[in-house]
Each structure stands twice: as C-alpha cells, then as structure tokens.
Amino acid sequence: MTVARTLTAVRRTLLGLVGLQLGLAIALSLVDSYRRRGKKPKPFPVTGPQTVPVGAGEITTYTFGRDLYDDMLAAIDGARKQILFETYIWKGDEIGWKFKTALTAAADRGVDVHCIYDGFANMVVSPAFKRFSPSLKVMRYPIWNAGLRVWDLRRYGRNHRKLLVVDEEVAFLGGYNIGSAYATEWRDTHVRITGPGVWDVKRAFADFWNLNRRRRLTRSERPLLLETASDWDPQIRIHRNIPRQWNFPIRSMYLEAINRASRNIWLTTAYFLPDQDFVDSLAEAAQRGVDVRILLPLKSNHIVADWISRGYYGQLLASGARILRFKDAMVHAKTATIDGNWATVGTANIDRLSLQGNYEINLEVIDPAFAEVMEDVFRTDETNCLELTLAEWEARDLNRKFTESFLAPLRPLL
Ligand SMILES: O=P(O)(O)OC[C@H](O)CO
C-alpha cells in the first residue's frame, strides 16, 4: 500500500469516527428531548434572599428566580439616571416581556437605558420581540463577529454575561438569564451588590459596549463611562473574561483559590467540563485532606454535556472528592465557596466555552459573612442531592463506559 493510500484510509477512519461521535451526540439529544416532553420539574428547596454587609457595601444572594426578578424589576422602575442591562438569553415570554416593558418605560421617562443581548443565544426568539423602541439603546451582539478575520479566534466568544446596573447604586450579576422557566423551575444563584463594587460592574458593561459598538463616534460623542472609580474595596473583585483581549482571569481566579484551600471547596456548576489541570487541582486538594464537594445537575438540559462530564468522575471520586447530583430540577448556578472565607458567584460555567472562550463576569469576595451565606445555600442544595459513590460509579454497566469514552474526544468543543 502506498503512503498516499494509507493517509487516505487514516483520514477516512478519523472522519468516520468524528461523524459517529456527532451522530451519537445528536441521537442522545433527540431521545432526551422526546422523553422530557410535557414533564415539569419538581419544586426544590430554596433559601430566601440573604443580605450581608461586605466592605463599604452590601451583598444580597438570590437562589430563586422570582425573588430576583421582582427586585431587578423594582430597581429598573426606580431608576433615575441610567440603566445598563446585559443578558445572554432574553426569552420573548412573560418574564422577558416584563423586562422589556419596564426598560422601555424607564427610557420613556428620560432614563438613559442601554441593553445588550447575545444574537446566537436568542436566534429562536421571535423577531417581533427583538424590535425595540428607539428610546432604548440596544446592542445585539452579532452571531458572526469575526467578519473577514476568520482566523482570529479572539472574535468567536459569545457574550455569556448576565448583569444589570441601575444608577450608581446597585448592580446585579450571576447565573440567571431572563425567562419564565428560570423564575420558578431552575435553581440558580445571583447577587445584588451595593457600594464600590457597583462601579466595576458598570465599567465591565461600558468596556464591552465601547469595544463592540458598530458605529464610529461622532466628534461630539464620548465613549460610555470615561470617568474612573474613586474607591477600592479590598474584599471584592470583579473578574471579566474578555476573549477579544485574550484575557481569561476567571479560570486563574478559581485555580488560585483551589490551590490554597485548606478546609473545604464546595463548588456548584451547571456544566462540568473542566480541563485536565482544573481536575488535577481539585483532586490534589481532596488528596491533601480538603473537603471537596462538586454539586451538579443529575440531568442537565444538555444531555451530551452530562455524558462528557462523567468522564472526570472516576479520577475525582478516587481522590476523595464528593459528587452530589441535584435531582428533579436543573441547577444552573455558577458558584464556589472555600475555607469559610472565599466565594465566587458569576456567569462562568466550569467548561472550556466559559473559562477559555466567552465573555464572562464573576464576583470574587473574601469575606467570612458572605462565605457563610454561600455555605448555607450549598447545604440547602445538598438536601436535594443524590451522592454518587466510587463503588456505584465503578459498578456502572459497559454501555455507559463505552458511551463516555466514545464521546470523550468532543470535550475540547465544550
Ligand atoms: O449558557 P448558560 O449557562 O447561561 O445556560 C443556558 C442554557 O444552557 C440554555 O440552554
């Protein structure tokens, strides 16, 4: 056989394998969505909004969408000067309309309202919903943002952030997208902050707006938010992934905190597809005696992500880490708390798309009172979890082991 024939055979085999993997992924998704038809998630335990003072401001933690949306809408209704609103998903349903109506009313009474939503995430939302009053300044982050620079990987990140800033006074950020199902059916975590941290969230919005605006500024126009902050709050940091600047601090933030943990790491994530270094850090923490708990959905809304995620369970369980699976509803939170001191709440999932691909925003807080709230939330979630033991994991059937291994090469895509 000539070299050329061998290369052709290898190429066909590889293409065939990739085709089979994608085919299996599609088949799993179709079967899963068929099985879910008409099924409603069950209620789950939640903690009410809890507020603690941190530095010169306060942080309120939300774990139930309806509580959060009520407070966000009240803040929009009370705005006097400016609203900055940014979301990955903005459904055209009852909750989506409530936000659209409140934002439009604010703009109509003279408030300066800026909105950003992601074009790709809202492709299925009706075009009528996506027509806005001219009183609102709206940016649809485009589906294709690379233009003719197809080779430029910095232009492929999605805008996955979810935030709201009202005047100088209050900022919200966290895992919640905007939609009716998230109000009651999904377990998620968001925070409301006051104090110097608000400026950082405002800066995050303004930088994205200025970086991605389509139209050049006229001579008389100024970029959004030229002024700088006057205060530093040592307990609070806002970290932003900015793919356009190839800047991904949220992964580093996690790794640094995990690597210095001495007592506990309690991590909650909707999708768990970390890189090997991330898994190693968690496993090493467990091996040095840290109480590592990873809380995930038993079944998320993306079944292929669940299958691929399972590929990491063996190493983690063998290291002593515990895996807790939230049952009967989707847990979509992106949070962690460490050693009763450190905590993060944000938009970044523990997967490649979030940690090395998309625009994201996470709050990092070093404060025992806030860490205690986050531990309280975690304990409440644990009451709705099934723990997966190493013995159970090792006893799973061959079909499952085969599917996990077969889908493993798709990991870098997610
Ligand atoms: O990308 P996230 O974390 O906001 O989750 C969104 C849902 O997966 C939509 O299907």
Can you characterise this structure?
Pfam families: PLDc_2 (PF13091). This is Phosphatidylserine/phosphatidylglycerophosphate/ cardiolipin synthase family protein. It comes from Nocardioides astragali. By secondary structure, the protein is α/β, with parallel strands linked by helices. 38% of the residues lie in helices and 22% in strands. The chain is built from 13 helices and 20 strands. The chain has an 8-stranded mixed beta sheet, sandwiched between helices. The structure holds SN-glycerol-3-phosphate. The site of SN-glycerol-3-phosphate has 8 residues, from loops.
Shape: globular
The molecules bound to the chains, other than polymers, are: SN-glycerol-3-phosphate
Strand content: 15-25%
What is the CA-CA span between the terminal residues?
38 Å
- Main sheet summary: 8 strands, mixed
Strand-pairing-aware structural class: alpha/beta
Q: Give average pLDDT, whole number.
A: 93
Briefly say what this structure is:
With 414 residues, the protein is an alpha/beta fold. It is 38% helix and 22% strand. Strand 6 (163-166) and strand 7 form a beta hairpin.
Fold topology:
Blueprint: H1 3-36, E1 50-54, E2 57-62, H2 65-77, E3 82-87, H3 94-108, E4 112-118, E5 137-141, E6 163-166, E7 170-174, H4 180-184, E8 186-187, E9 190-193, H5 197-212, E10 236-241, H6 249-260, E11 264-268, E12 272-273, H7 276-287, E13 291-297, H8 303-309, H9 313-319, E14 322-326, E15 330-331, E16 335-338, E17 342-346, E18 350-351, H10 352-356, E19 360-366, H11 368-382, E20 385-388, H12 390-394, H13 398-407
Parallel strand pairs: 3-4, 4-5, 8-15, 11-13, 12-18, 13-14
Antiparallel strand pairs: 1-2, 2-9, 3-6, 6-7, 7-9, 10-19, 11-16, 14-20, 16-17, 17-19
Bound molecules: SN-glycerol-3-phosphate.
Residues 88-89, 160, 177, 270, 301-302, 349 line the site of SN-glycerol-3-phosphate (G3P).
